[in-house]
Design goal:
Blueprint lengths: L3 H6 L2 E2 L2 E2 L3 H10 L1 E4 L5 H15 L10 E3 L13 E5 L1 H4 L7 H14 L3 E11 L8 E4 L13 E7 L10 E4 L12 E2 L10 E2 L9 E3 L6 E4 L4 E4 L8 E10 H9 L10 H5 L9
Antiparallel strand pairs: 1-2, 3-13, 4-5, 5-6, 6-15, 7-14, 8-13, 8-15, 9-12, 9-14, 10-11
Bound molecules: 2-oxoglutaric acid.
The site of 2-oxoglutaric acid (AKG) has 10 residues, from strand 8, strand 14 and strand 15.
Length: about 280
């Protein structure tokens, strides 16, 4: 097998990453696709240095934008299972325009067309040995306001090799093509206590794990059902997420006061992600 550097180099041309026709087709059919070698080892290492500054809390992240996606807002940060840093590019502006953002933009354009811009970014780090670092089953659209155009390309970059054992992404392929979203409800009490929403697997749902290597991404759309299991290893499972949506969609979200910050006005957050919605 080719070493990782050349595996990546074949598909990278500066800020561009070449997505094949087959990959584009799978993204639209299944709701997600795995793209190998989006970033070279050197590029991941550069991002990782900043990533770990967030984890050491050397870069300040206010309020609920530093939280646990598997626990309530009252949990002691030492005990977080899934450390969630919302909007890292807002709190560390030097990241704006980094190599991942640039190459991810080329992927979003190839998968969803022109006019895709960054809506939000997010770091999701599962601490070692946390069986409860479970990301509940959900469809991203359940978290967001309804908009005329909902097209999304969310890139999920593995900073660590991502495996079934450490809680890689898992999907229920083709749920993106169901006519309505599944009903979602808050995982822990209410939105004031925790941000996470969840929906139940059905008995006929077929779950596919998506283990990927460091520097690879999965890309998913706004309707495919996904989640992830606990971290049963003695290492971190670190991921860096960037979601692209149409410029007009982002404009409407901002007009509503919706920025993807967990510190957004509670009334705005309460107005989306309600139980039993179907659209
Ligand atoms: O990192 C995970 O395990 C889940 C991430 C996720 O649900 C997302 O990026 O939409």
């Amino acid at each position: 097998m080719a070493p990782p550097e050349s595996r990546a180099d074949r598909r990278i041309d500066g800020d561009e990453y070449r997505v094949s026709d087959d990959e584009r087709e799978r993204f639209h059919r299944d709701g997600y696709v795995h793209l190998a070698g989006l970033l070279t080892p050197a590029e991941v290492a550069e991002l990782e240095a900043v990533y770990d500054r967030f984890l050491r809390r050397e870069i300040e992240v206010p309020g609920k934008d530093y939280c646990d996606m598997a626990g309530d807002y009252g949990r002691d940060p030492e005990d977080f299972s899934i450390i969630n840093v919302m909007l890292p590019r807002r709190y560390h502006p030097a990241w704006q325009g980094n190599v991942y953002e640039r190459r991810a933009a080329s992927v979003a354009r190839q998968l969803q067309g022109d006019g895709m811009v960054i809506d939000y970014d997010q770091l999701l780090a599962k601490q070692p040995g946390k069986a409860d670092a479970v990301f509940a089953w959900h469809q991203d659209m359940a978290y967001w306001p309804d908009t005329p155009d909902t097209n999304t390309a969310t890139l999920w970059l593995a900073i660590d090799e991502s495996t079934t054992e450490n809680g890689c992404m898992r999907f229920v392929p083709a749920t993106n093509r169901e006519p309505a979203l599944r009903p979602h409800s808050p995982v822990l009490g209410g939105r004031g206590e925790s941000h996470a929403l969840g929906t139940m697997l059905r008995t006929d749902d077929v779950v596919v794990d998506a283990p990927i290597r460091r520097g690879d991404v999965t890309v998913h759309n706004e309707r495919v059902m996904h989640g992830s299991g606990g971290n049963h290893t003695d290492g971190f499972r670190r991921a860096y997420v960037i979601a692209f949506r149409r410029d007009e969609t982002v404009r409407i979200e901002r007009q509503l006061g919706f920025t993807h910050s967990h510190n957004d006005d509670a009334a705005v957050l309460d107005s989306v992600g309600v139980e039993g919605q179907s659209r």
